[in-house]
Amino acid sequence: MEKQKKTIKSKIGVVVSDAMDKTVVVQVERRMLEPTFKKYISRRKKFLAHDEKEECDIGDVVTICETKPLSRRKTWKVVGILKKGLGKEIALKG
Description:
By secondary structure, the chain is mainly beta. It has one domain: CATH 2.40.50.140. It contains one helix and five strands. The protein has one helix spanning 88-93; strands at residues 10-20, 23-34, 39-50, 61-66, 74-83. Strands 1-2-3-5-4 form a five-stranded mixed barrel.
């Protein structure tokens, strides 16, 4: 029998909270076609991700990938920062 390669799941999202130690909340948004009305709608989901170096701030666009469970809800880790955000002060005003 052939071994199947495991594909690593990864997602791109925006950091919405960094209040916890070594953990950030990443919101991932996807657009899907609603079957009845044939309109695109947005679906959002929040993931807890491990940030070992604590370099993520609110508003950063990051890539996360799946990993072994690190706690009850945290099974993702931050792989890299794609774009730095505007900072906490500006993100909290808007």
